[in-house]
Amino acid sequence: MNSAIRWRIVSLQAVMVIVLAGAAAFAFYEGNFVTGYVKDQLTAQQISFPTTAALAADTRSSEYGSEFKSYAGQQITNGDQARVYANDYIAVHLKGIAGGLTYSTLGTKISGLSAQLATMSKTDPGYATLQSQITTLNGQRDTLFKGEMLRGTLLNSWGWWTLGVYATYAGVGLLIAALGVLGALAFEVFVAARKPEPIKVTQKIAA
Known about the structure:
By secondary structure, this protein is an all-alpha fold. The chain has six helices and no strands. The protein has one domain.
């Protein structure tokens, strides 16, 4: 290999080291920023898992997953905890509020009952009963809205947390790649470049 080709290889390797190292630094920064921000926001909410004693007294404890129970008494500070709390606790309780209906479907049911109530006379024997039913459903719908909003927020935190963790993993991979190219660059500069190049000797054969 002549010096011109070796110089091109060394230059390319140097550029790759800079690019990979820069990308690794950016990935590490983004990963730490995202996970740190999510942790700060979750910590500020001061949401904690039920204690072991509270779980023992909870009639729905059997519906919670083992992962949820392993966090008993802990405060939510990371995305994985937020996911477990949202899916294994909030979701379970939301299903029992209105027979499995969601905020949206419950709203449709209330609208239908309200339309029916509007056609009834206040002196109708069933008027007060229907009105009470609508009031109860509105209370359930309000509870569902708050629960689904909290669940959605926690799952959103989990999504960003996961993105931050993967960004950190990507930073590790890029750093390893940068070190690999740096090693190849060092070999090319300090080892391969010092090897004497073979000299070709052309011998003329007498006619």
